[in-house]
User: What shape does this take?
Amino acid sequence: MSLVFYSRSDDPEPWRAAIAAAVPDLEFRVDPDIGNPADVHYALVWKPPQGWLAQFPNLRAILSLGAGVDALLEDPQLPHVPLTRMVDAGMGRQMAEYAAHAVLHFHRHMPRYAEHQRVARWAPLEPVAARDFAVGFMGLGVLGAQAAQLVAALGYPVLGWSRTPKSLPGVEGFAGDRGLAAFLARTRVLVNFLPLTDATRGIIDARLLAGLPRGAFVVNPARGGHVVERDLLAALDSGHIAGAMLDVFETEPLPAEHPFWKHPSVVVTPHVAAVTQAADAASQVIDNLLRLERGEAPVGVVDRGAGY
Ligand code: NAP
Ligand code: GLV
Assistant: This one.
């Protein structure tokens, strides 16, 4: 029995060590040393090239190293075996930190004080009470729910929008197309935690941004494909959107000439809002391998119809 590992951004060694300790009879192979593809039963992957997984005729399951599986589902040759994703696996806390940081950054006028510091300008701004600074989360799944609850614990009014209605302590829920306009109208900081699917691609466009109050902020730690970048730039340039903190982009790495890099109202981070780490996530992979070997259903199986 063997597992093949593919990632251009994760070190295979901590994964090899953790899996070898728990499943010693599993051979761990790392691309490009994949040996005979017919011996490979499991694939542990982040963004393999399209068609790469189709070379393994006896694959039993594909285990994603990430929470979002949009890149895998775009592969027209993706084998028809169970596909699992990371469910929290240490990322919930990291995402909650990222979201809380972004909210505090914008609420406490940090971008404007940074501008003032560059020109040695001492100019206190009018404080805004947290109770008047509602934060709206699009996506209340594993990561969005944790981030929403940390922000609620900081004393902000928190709104959440999801496909199906959700009831979370401290979070006022809105659902579906019918709930979107009311959700947006009250949101001062929009934080996106949606998966990238056919239904959500390009959702943060001119129309959605126009539904936010003037001076709102946008935080995107989900996927670049959610944002129509030219629409966000236009909304920032017009002042309708006062600032954005962006971790993910249509093209990654973000090209050096992209206007987001130098935009005075944009904070760019390099797809690091929540990073899969073997120390937190290997136990979930091991648990799934053992379940699969026992013939049981793994956790985090992706609903290919829904796309997440
Ligand atoms: P999840 O548990 O699957 O949650 C997805 C949420 O989005 C659910 O609340 C779902 O609604 C909602 N949703 C899906 N389609 C919708 C639609 N059409 N309209 C309204 N709501 C919709 O996902 P997760 O684990 O929280 O992860 C979210 C995303 O974060 C991932 O897909 C990935 O893209 C991104 N991510 C980014 C990083 C990074 O470092 N930047 C790291 C990890 C993950 P229901 O509750 O009704 O199903
Ligand atoms: C990272 O972007 C992930 O989906 O885990």
About this structure: The mean pLDDT is 98. Residues 61 and 82 are 5 Å apart (CA to CA). The chain has ten helices and twelve strands.
